[in-house]
């Protein structure tokens, strides 16, 4: 919208915001167009009668009639607005990224709390059964010893599955 307004305000042939191409380095730098109004758009700042740096490597290029001193002062205000629009776009993108990171962190925290609980249950059962078997003050019947041993075996298998799932999830991440 700002490049359209610039073109109309100053009766220019073309106005564009150019940014360096990703691989554009050195003297043969390539440019990509971020926004434009009118034509023909100068393909690079070097080929434009007027250009102004905006930030992040982007450049405003103008083509058309020569600007008077008063017009150049007004153009400075337009350039400031473009710079603010760039900053606002960057801040919006950073805020969106921060929001995604925050949501991922909340999910990780909830998952860790759930996994922690799921890991403690079989561990507590194994510990209680093993401690009971090792107690010197109680004489356990063969059936009770077998029951404790089966409990330890089942809960160890359950714990092994939980740890395996955790390792699989960490590899997926």
Report on the architecture of this protein.
There is one protein chain. The protein is of the alpha+beta class and 173 residues long. 61% of the residues lie in helices and 17% in strands. The protein contains three helices and four strands, in the order αββββαα. The chain has helices at residues 2-10, 69-134, 142-172; strands spanning 12-20, 31-38, 50-55, 58-64. A four-stranded antiparallel sheet has the order 2-1-4-3, covered by helices on one side. A hairpin with a 2-residue loop joins β3 and β4. The two termini are 41 Å apart. The model has no long low-confidence stretch (mean pLDDT 86).
Strand content: 15-25%
Poorly predicted ranges (pLDDT <50, ≥5 residues)?
Answer: none
Mean pLDDT: 86
Q: Which value, in Å, is the CA radius of gyration?
A: 34 Å
How would a textbook summarize the main sheet? 4 strands, antiparallel
Largest sheet, order of strands side by side?
A: 2-1-4-3
Secondary structure: helix percent: 55-70%
Helix run count: 3
Total beta strand runs: 4
Terminal CA distance? 41 Å
Summing up helix and strand content along with how strands pair, one would put the structural category as alpha+beta
**General shape:** rod-shaped
Order of helices and strands: HEEEEHH
Task: Give the secondary structure arrangement, pairings included.
Layout lengths: L1 H9 L1 E9 L10 E8 L11 E6 L2 E7 L4 H66 L7 H31 L1
Antiparallel strand pairs: 1-2, 1-4, 3-4
